[in-house]
Amino acid sequence: MSEDSLNTTNLLLGVMALASVIQVLVLIGVGVMAFRLYRQTLQTIRDIEERHVAPVAARVLSLMARIDGILGDVKSVATLVTRQTERVDSAIDHTMHRVDESARRVRDSVGSGIAQLMGLAHGVRRVVQGLLGGRRSGETPAA
Hints:
The chain is mostly helical. Helix content is 92%, strand content 0%.
């Protein structure tokens, strides 16, 4: 090999080494820029989270706590209404039973009284018919 050929080879190797150094520097620059972009993105996400997400999350948690309280109240009211409804139903059943019993007693009492009155009315009618039955159309009753 000749010296010219060796110089050309050395020159090409130097150019390739320089290109490799430039590539490494560009890659390091890209890495630094990517890291800065990553940090800036994380900071932006934290800022958005602090300004927007955290207050909304706090309000949602507060509302959920209030809703839990309201649901507890609704459950207790529903339980109370169920118990009161059962009590009213029982009272109505008891009252209806007593009304039926009273109506039966009144019917029996009135029926017995009416039967006695009817018997008395029949008796009076028979007596009146007996008294009037002996009288003819032209007769006057004896005094």
